């Protein structure tokens, strides 16, 4: 069986941690879609829809307890390898998210968190499409 096509309304469940980064409140993000085709009334997600996901949220580390801010973006989303439409459709339940520090967290002495950007796999949940797959 192939991967389900991702459609509008599916959600990205962010993990609580990205390496040393601990998200204060891991966000749940609902996806938008721009595909012309629909599955049961929901537009399909097509290539570049994932680039619209930009989430800013608070974070800390074990040492840096005064929260800072990170920006979460999609680094990689799998697309169908062959399509007849103008843009490939987005598939797969697992994507890769980049977590980059925007405003560093600080420790009690005011030292800034030196954490470099972190990559982490995330999962698509609550995808309204549970029927149409691609190989």
Describe this structure in words.
There is one protein chain. The protein has 135 residues and is an all-beta fold. The protein has one domain. Helix content is 0%, strand content 39%. The chain is built from no helices and twelve strands. Strand 6 (38-39) and strand 7 (42-43) form a beta hairpin.
State the main characteristics.
135 residues, mainly beta, eight-stranded antiparallel sheet, 0% helix, elongated, CIS_spike_tip
Question: Which percent range describes the beta-strand content?
Answer: 35-45%
* Oligomer category: single chain
What is the H-and-E element order? EEEEEEEEEEEE
Total helical elements: 0
Strand order of the largest sheet: 3-4-8-9-10-11-2-5
Please summarize what this structure is.
The chain has 135 residues and is mainly β. 0% of the residues lie in helices and 39% in strands.
Task: List the SSEs and their pairings.
Elements: E1 3-4, E2 11-13, E3 17-18, E4 21-23, E5 28-30, E6 38-39, E7 42-43, E8 54-60, E9 68-76, E10 94-103, E11 118-125, E12 133-134
Antiparallel strand pairs: 1-12, 2-5, 2-11, 3-4, 4-8, 6-7, 8-9, 9-10, 10-11
